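Posting this for the archive.
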Amino acid sequence: MTTVTVRGIRAEIRAARLRSRPAQARRERNDTMYLVILGFLIYGGILVQAVRRMIDAPPIGPAPPNLPVAQWLFVGCAVLGLGLLVRALLVFGPVVASGPFQFWLLSTPLNRRSLLGRRFWWLAAIGAVAGGLPGLAASALLKADLTGKLLSTAVCAGMAAGVVAVCVLLQQKARSGQRLSTVLVVVGALVAAAAVFVTPPVLDLPLLTAGAAVPPIVGIVLAYRALGTLDRAALAGGAEILAASRVAVNWMDVSLFAGMVSARKWRSIGKVSSRALRGVRHRAMVYADIRRISRNRTAFSVWLGLLLTPYAAQRLLPETFVPTVQLVACAIAVSPFAAGLRHICRSAAMRRSLGGSDAGLRLAHLVAPAVMALLWTAATSPASGFALASAVVPIGAVAFVYRRASQPSFDYSGGAVDTPFGLFQPNTVRQLLRGPLLLLFAAAVQLYL
């Protein structure tokens, strides 16, 4: 009796695919592989050169001002980023199985750990690289020596790989993962706030490395052992949103991904209490927009968390650039409150059913973002010393939000330009920069005030 192994099944499937394809399909596959390998070599070479320069850069020049503040602020941002990474990974899976792999292979008595092991190790490796690069960049900015750069890179890479392992362990316990994400975000925000408003001690990097080295290794081992316990429902839960993210990346349209995430979010809420709207016409629309915003806790969390950004810039950057940081942070903080404005601008059927002029409908749904921008600017004005450039902040943020919300659907019919990196459409780049260019203009105005 012949023993069926996962490696044998993969080899047989690969051979069957080659036999079933005609010669033309094989040539097309080879052309695609050539383009992928060429892009990997080009962009991978650029990344390798950047990493080598950051490693070889000597710590010349004076140390950055408020070095302990910068160190602890980076630690707080790293913990906060890990919390957000946990939330994002649990949305996708992180281990995902879809299509024939889910239907044919996961229904067999083959060892599930062997089936999913390759995907898990790829996820852990990608997480380690994605976490190590910010650690290396931060250590280079802080003028660290070679030992400090290696330790910082190792800590960040290990923490990111450990988060991937923890997410695999919590893949069948979504609520526990959400609680862990909330705890990490709160701890990261508190550490960042303490670094901004209190002068912390200098960070002992070797001690931090020793404390952060063991948990990721233990987590990866436990997660690999737990791969065999993942059921098909847990593995297929993120297939739909993963496919939507691929389409959004290929078509460079974030709304394709954001719409599905929003639908899943409201399905998880289930039901809300319903009350009659107050007032008539535009007043009722403003009240409905406020009710919609009150149910979006994430928007308020982002709004509150970004309040620290101008104060951190005040401690680390020259005084001239603080209003610019304030402008960018305000635009990001106000964007989640413009959901109603985006729906009104992108749905002609909704505008016709509500009646009235388009300008009146858009102004009614612009009230909430404008009020939140004014409140955010007032709360962060002490960081900029109540400079005249701060007056541009709410205007620029609201203009950015309106510009992005009123953007029409993507138009891919423009002409293409042949470049050494392939064909690209200038019209697509113009559509992607709709809004950021206005923000850049507002920042330039701030520098002259």
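The first strand starts at residue 417 and ends at 419. The chain has a mean pLDDT of 81.
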